[in-house]
Specification:
Layout: E1 5-7, E2 10-11, E3 25-27, E4 45-49, E5 53-58, H1 75-82, E6 106-112, H2 115-126, E7 131-139, E8 146-150, E9 153-156, E10 163-164, E11 167-171, E12 174-183, E13 188-195, H3 202-209, H4 230-238, E14 244-252, E15 259-263, H5 271-279
Parallel strand pairs: 6-14
Antiparallel strand pairs: 1-2, 1-3, 4-5, 5-6, 7-13, 7-14, 8-12, 9-10, 9-11, 12-13, 14-15
């Protein structure tokens, strides 16, 4: 109705219109609607802060920065409220953001308050100079106590909304892991993970690729039917996000060179309650 699609120089008004052979269409891509990013008084746990940067906790269910469909309630909205100065190096919509976590991944993020820190932290991530560690609960009993998953990742050829190892534009991806606990009765394993690259959905894709999708990660292969106990199924129902937490960040301060190491004191609920039940 706005004239963005023309058929034989006539405006197309019916979305249900079927395209036929030899018809000529002209499609105009409208300019993106600007997103107004406002400070919002969203609770924010700050683990470290100085003039250049901060390390904060992102809860599961929170989107990192505004986008279509997520114009408020994001981490950026919280940063703009809680910090007087946040780097605008990449614009207000991504104020302070130098790396991301998926919406349903909980954990620590370093954010830039100064433009200097923003540029330097970006370089450090590109050069793999920032140590990121995660904990995850995966389905199945991981056989090896220690392993490296070295599988390139790209946009899935089967579903363009997902990443995969059978994909286009593959990029190297390396994930190191250690088994912390196996629950044979429940067919679950807890793993400690270190990322050596930072590809989109890397941990989720890698563990799915080796046959051990994350608990509750239905996008990458989780099926409740693979759980072998009523307790595990109840824990899956209790958990409203996939079982992945970025619990540790270690890096050298971009200005002083001092080592900054931050760890979560506890995993987010209900994971501790789930672990207690699984260990009974």
């Amino acid at each position: 109705e706005k004239g963005f699609v023309l058929k034989n120089q006539q405006v197309v008004k019916k979305p249900s219109l079927k395209v036929k052979l030899n018809e000529v269409y002209f499609v105009t891509i409208p300019p993106p609607t600007p997103i107004e990013v406002e400070p919002e008084n969203i609770p924010l746990k700050i683990y470290y802060e100085d003039e250049d940067l901060a390390v904060v906790y992102k809860p599961p269910g929170m989107v990192v920065h505004p986008s279509v469909g997520h114009t408020s309630g994001t981490l950026v909205n919280a940063l703009l409220y809680h910090f007087k100065n946040v780097s605008m190096y990449q614009g207000r919509e991504r104020a302070g953001i130098v790396h991301r976590l998926d919406k349903d991944t909980a954990g620590l993020l370093v954010v830039a308050k100064s433009e200097f820190a923003h540029k330097e932290l970006q370089k450090m991530f590109q050069n793999r100079e920032i140590d990121k560690k995660y904990k995850a609960i995966v389905v199945g009993l991981v056989k090896k106590d220690y392993g490296m998953i070295d599988l390139p990742i790209g946009r899935s050829i089967y579903d363009r909304q997902k990443m995969g190892t059978v994909a286009t534009n593959l990029r190297d991806a390396l994930t190191e892991y250690w088994v912390e606990k196996r629950w044979e009765k429940h067919n679950l394993t807890m793993v400690d993970i270190k990322l050596h690259t930072g590809r989109t959905h890397q941990i989720r894709v890698h563990f799915s690729a080796i046959g051990h999708p994350l608990l509750n990660d239905e996008v990458y292969g989780f099926k409740k039917s693979k759980l072998t106990s009523d307790t595990a199924k109840q824990m899956s129902d209790l958990l409203n996000f996939h079982a992945l937490v970025a619990y540790s960040l270690t890096f050298k301060h971009p200005r002083s060179g001092k080592e900054i190491k931050v760890q979560l004191e506890n995993l987010p609920e209900p994971i501790p309650s789930i672990l207690e039940k699984l260990n009974d």
